[in-house]
Amino acid sequence: MAHIIVIGNEKGGAGKSTVSMHVATALARQGHKVGVLDLDLRQRTLARYLTNRTAFMAKSGLDLATPVYYDLPDIDENGLNPGENAFDHRLSMAVARLEEDCDFILIDCPGSHTRLSQVAHSLADTLITPLNDSFVDFDLLAHVDGEGEEITGPSIYSEMVWSARQLRAQAGLKPIDWVVVRNRMGAQAMVNKEKMQRVINKLARRIGFRTAPGFNERVIFRELFPRGLTLLDLRDIGVKSMNISNVAARQELRDLIKALDLPGVKANF
């Protein structure tokens, strides 16, 4: 069966689509067959990213390793039994279709709580939660006291992940490998950064997730989106010498892929 990777975070602006595109493309470039679903049916940022990639390849004549995007299929709701949810069926049909010939299925969830997102989390073999390095975003995972040192209680998102874990346990499936990816971490050793490190470590032990390094804020990510490109495509489009920022960003991606420890995947790009 395909290994299912879910990118989930109920807060916008955390870099979910950037992480999704780079992870999916890194897997595709290693020869893995990767299927992608975008559950943000309104903004569809990841879907747009892949559409831009297809258009760029057609215009430039390049053939870049690319994951396969799949829309959720439409269903006849009149055929549902009482109490059955149409979104559940659409998602399960899409996953079943991709599992036929994919090694990995990557599901990008919206930055809000939806039925689709809730069901997707219960399907995750690996759950990646991008998180900006601030207490505003940390509130997604747990609440802290006024000093930012002690955890006072879990958030609704953490509770949803807990429920997803319980559903998987009841179904006899292996536990979710939950990885919190810290994006936009400052290079300087500031007091806020140190507090974040301590409280994240405490919460990781309490509710059971791993942490992984993410991406710093870089202009390159905004420049790549219109063409649907990733850091791994730069040499393919003729960039012979990368600047220091691009080299550092590529190393961040390498470190992320290594930390995810996905089956059969190496960070050797």
UniProtKB/TrEMBL annotation:
CDD domains found in the cross-reference section: ParAB_family
Pfam families listed in its UniProt record: MipZ (PF09140)
Protein name: ATPase
Organism: Yoonia vestfoldensis SKA53
